[in-house]
């Protein structure tokens, strides 16, 4: 009986957040180690189904770097990166489109359906591409067929959300000539969140959020304002690969997204714990007008 009551208490705690976020869009960037961990992926997709079931509008944008690397190895193509971005020549682009925008995109959709949800993959193969852009401009580096999103076709995404289906979007876009381009999954998710005016953008990471000590998971900072985030970058507390991710979060907030979250996608049900509990399990980054130092006031 005590266990049953405890479960009921959890539902009561979640009820306030469900009412607050019902009908609003949450964009979830899926990639990294989560896609290679079948059990972690299953629990994330169950969380996505739960969000849709209780009236939120989840939208999944995914990468697939490790799967692409495996496919390139099978084709005896050596992966190349410049400043963390994949150099995408014609042969690599063909593999990226097959793995990312076809196989993986369809597999994620099928897995959600198998788990009892409803989803639709939006890709080139089924004529439902919704990301459009242009070749990425760089400082002299030629990355090949790498792009940035300049326009998101909102209508198909919103239509799916309002018919209780989860849109599954691969991180590729098409330029005005019809050329397909490889896009960084973080920036693709940002573009989608901005275009939809999302309440939340959630980055599923391999770490549990922003930490005061990068080596100590218990030093996580649960809530940060934009100003506090910039201070921590200047102080060197936010360093290395976390800097571009936090800077991307700040840019997204400036363009109208309500909150950005960084969470560990390998933690079981981390998505639900982050959204439907007061303290959460990751780091939320909010605009300076929010009270970042008081999670209970700012909310997740």
Q: How would you describe this protein?
A:
This protein has helices spanning 2-21, 33-36, 38-53, 65-74, 90-114, 154-162, 185-196, 226-235, 242-254, 270-276, 295-298, and strands at 25-30, 57-62, 81-82, 85-86, 119-121, 131-135, 147-152, 166-170, 172-174, 180-182, 200-205, 223-225, 259-264, 283-286. The protein is globular, with a radius of gyration of 19 Å. It has a single domain (2-298), classed as Acetylglutamate kinase-like (Carbamate kinase, 3-Layer(aba) Sandwich). 44% of the residues are buried. It has an eight-stranded mixed beta sheet with strand order 5-8-2-1-11-13-14-12, with helices on both faces. A two-stranded antiparallel ribbon has the order 3-4. It has a two-stranded antiparallel sheet with strand order 6-7. β3 (81-82) and β4 (85-86) form a beta hairpin. With 300 residues, it is of the alpha/beta class.
């Amino acid at each position: 009986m005590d266990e049953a009551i405890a479960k009921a208490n959890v539902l009561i705690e979640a009820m306030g957040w469900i009412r607050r976020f019902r009908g609003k869009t949450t964009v979830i960037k899926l990639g990294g180690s989560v896609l290679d961990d079948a059990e972690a992926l299953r629990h994330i997709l169950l969380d996505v189904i739960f969000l849709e079931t209780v009236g939120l509008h989840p939208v999944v944008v995914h990468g697939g770097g490790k799967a692409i690397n495996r496919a390139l190895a099978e084709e005896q193509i050596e992966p190349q990166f410049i400043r963390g971005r994949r150099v995408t020549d014609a042969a690599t682009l063909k593999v990226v489109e097959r793995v990312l925008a076809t196989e993986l995109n369809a597999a994620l959709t099928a897995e959600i359906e198998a788990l009892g949800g409803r989803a639709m993959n939006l890709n080139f193969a089924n004529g439902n591409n919704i990301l459009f852009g242009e070749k990425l401009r760089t400082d002299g580096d030629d990355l090949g067929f790498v792009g940035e999103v300049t326009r998101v076709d909102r209508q198909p995404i919103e239509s799916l959300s309002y018919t209780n289906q989860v849109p599954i979007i691969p991180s590729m876009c098409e330029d005005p000539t019809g050329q397909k381009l490889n896009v960084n999954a973080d920036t693709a998710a940002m573009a989608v969140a901005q275009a939809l005016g999302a309440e939340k953008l959630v980055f599923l990471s391999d770490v549990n959020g922003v930490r005061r000590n990068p080596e100590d998971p218990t030093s996580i900072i649960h809530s940060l304002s934009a100003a506090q985030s910039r201070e921590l970058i200047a102080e060197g507390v936010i360093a290395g690969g976390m800097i571009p991710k936090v800077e991307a979060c700040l840019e997204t907030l400036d363009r109208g997204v309500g909150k950005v979250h960084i969470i560990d996608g390998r933690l079981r049900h981390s998505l639900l714990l982050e959204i439907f509990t007061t303290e959460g399990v990751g780091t939320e980054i909010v605009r300076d007008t929010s009270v970042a130092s008081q999670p209970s006031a700012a909310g997740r």
